[in-house]
Amino acid sequence: MTDLQRDVLTGFESRFNRRPAGLWSAPGRVNLIGEHTDYNEGFVFPFAIDRRTVIALGLRDDRLIRVASSFAEEAIELCLEELFPENLSGWSAYPLGVAWALGQFGANLGELKGFEVFIDSEVPIGAGLSSSAAIESAVAVALNDVWRLNLDHRTLARVGQLAENRAVGAPTGIMDQSASLLGRADAGVFLDCRSLESEVIPLGFDAAGLELLIIDTKVSHSHATGGYAARRASCEAGAGALGVDSLRDLDIDDLPRAAEVLGDETFRRVRHVVTENRRVLDTVRTLREQGPTAIGALLDASHTSMRDDFEISVPELDLAVETARLAGAIGARMTGGGFGGAAIALTPHALVPAVTAAVMAAFDARGFATPDIFVVHAADGAGREQ
Ligand code: ADP
Ligand code: MG
């Protein structure tokens, strides 16, 4: 048993005075490329990381739900009858939102038994590594098992998204949950967010002597408010003005026309999404044809597009990316929704210490908070542990 598994088991037993039915876990994710393309029905290419949220869960004999987390002293209690998005708030909206959303996908909440759950996590929160999808996916696979729902992992991804959209109120796409549920060791999840078809693509970082460094700037973001929703609205406005259902329907060839029809800001938002979709496809093709050492320029171009066209970077992210490249990373970009969070730097194994030291020194010199820098590996998606 890992330390985290043991902590979760002890946490469950001390709060609820009994043994759980089992332990389940789900990973955070990092997006290799394809940012703000998911809700535009485009392409994304994330992978599940080797940092997980672990939960212990057991059914009750009655219809009460009790959720507890290493986050909070008190357990939150609710009856299945009271399980509506309007009644949910705070951190418990993630696990309770999933229970509610399962009802929207066929679970008969009018008859099912309540449960107790304890949650702990090693996914950093608000770093753009999707601690939210990790908690949703872990709860989704656990309830799918104990409630015997037989939903597949693709459907559970939609359950998690619905919970996040309706119970938490964050208008996010389906990428995070898909990565957390469908991820595989040493591979990325290439996802078409329109058809929801996905393909597991080997990354081959290890064999090529590459490491993926996460540089968590510690600048916090919130998806439920502000810039994320504004960007989403710009994309909808751009698609509407151009007469398409979503920006997925546009290609690079359509950009000259878009430049004529749209105002400058909306045009740049649209150009980011259109070119980013192309970069995702190019990344998958390049990985297949040439291997991971050839994708650096695509990561770099993605960052430039987010900084200049989509305007979701912050000085800390720009500094992390520029410094990592100068110190030897073969490609780097901010990752996640933006306005803070983390950057990634694809770095030759031997240069990891040099890149880490250079970024630390650069942040120090600029007076920025000390970043958290660590390597992640592509890991398996959500499932039962014990
Ligand atoms: P991100 O997904 O990038 O980490 P979000 O703002 O989407 O950031 O989700 C973070 C929120 O998810 C936290 O504020 C908290 O409400 C919830 N959360 C994440 N991990 C846990 C946990 N271990 N226990 C309870 N709540 C958690
Ligand atoms: Mg999140």
Describe this structure in words.
The structure is a single chain. The protein folds into 2 domains: 199 residues, 2-Layer Sandwich (Ribosomal Protein S5, domain 2), CATH 3.30.230; 175 residues, GHMP kinase, C-terminal domain (Alpha-Beta Plaits, 2-Layer Sandwich). The protein is 40% helix and 22% strand. The chain contains 11 helices and 12 strands. The strands form 2 sheets. Strands 1, 2, 3, 4, 5, 6, 7 and 12 form an 8-stranded mixed beta sheet that branches. A 4-stranded antiparallel beta sheet has the order 9-10-8-11. Strand 3 and strand 4 form a beta hairpin. The mean pLDDT is 96.
Number of structural domains: 2
Report low-confidence residues grouped into runs of 5 or more.
Answer: none
- C-alpha Rg (nearest Å): 21 Å
Shape: globular
Estimate what percentage of residues fall within beta strands.
15-25%
Distance between the termini: 9 Å
Q: Please write the string of helix (H) and strand (E) elements.
A: HEEEEHEHHHEEEHHHHHEEHEE
Q: Strand tally, please? A: 12
Sheet having the most strands:
8 strands, mixed
Percent range of helical residues:
40-55%
In this entry the ligands are: adenosine-5'-diphosphate, magnesium ion
CATH topology of the largest domain: Ribosomal Protein S5, domain 2
